[in-house]
Hints:
CATH superfamily: Flavodoxin domain
Number of strands: 8
Strand content: 25-35%
Shape: globular
Number of helices: 6
Number of domains: 1
Strand order of the largest sheet: 2-1-3-4-5-7
Distance between the termini: 37 Å
CATH architecture: 3-Layer(aba) Sandwich
Amino acid sequence: MSRKPTFNVVVVYDDFYSALRAQELAGRMAAELEPVFVLRTEVWNFELATHADLCDRAAKDAIEADMVIISASTGEDLPSGVKGWMQSWLPQKRGGLAALVALVNWPAGRGADTPPAAASLRQMAKASGMDFFCRTGRPREDSFSYAFGSVHRQGVGSRVVPGGIAYSGPAWRGHGQRWLGVAE
Length: 184
């Protein structure tokens, strides 16, 4: 019997509700991917991922990940420590196959269409050649109701729509032209 390839996911979150939101997404991914892949998930909160004694381990996990999920309780810009931690390992992702997923709380009706945290993450993903997916909204109101659908990648640009999805970057290489995206 042949071994299934491993799909590595790293979740980085800031509070309890954002952790639940990310774990819900990871659980749905597992249901979709486990027939083909073995899903391995590493979970870090913002404080531990940026702690002097642990940041190297968290960065190693992120470098090895096929997908990094950043889940934040607010769409305001990420803390400078988290940005610095990400910038320490993102250059090592260049040219690799990986996706960066942003899950941010940004209720409809907020001033800007694009939450500052999502804009920062999208730019980081683009600079490192990662695909980018974003889901905005309020986790409690959504009741964590996410579904996966096949998203056909056709070089579409990126725009974050409150309550919707966005993705940008090169077509998902190595896994054909289809990728699982966060959908409503």
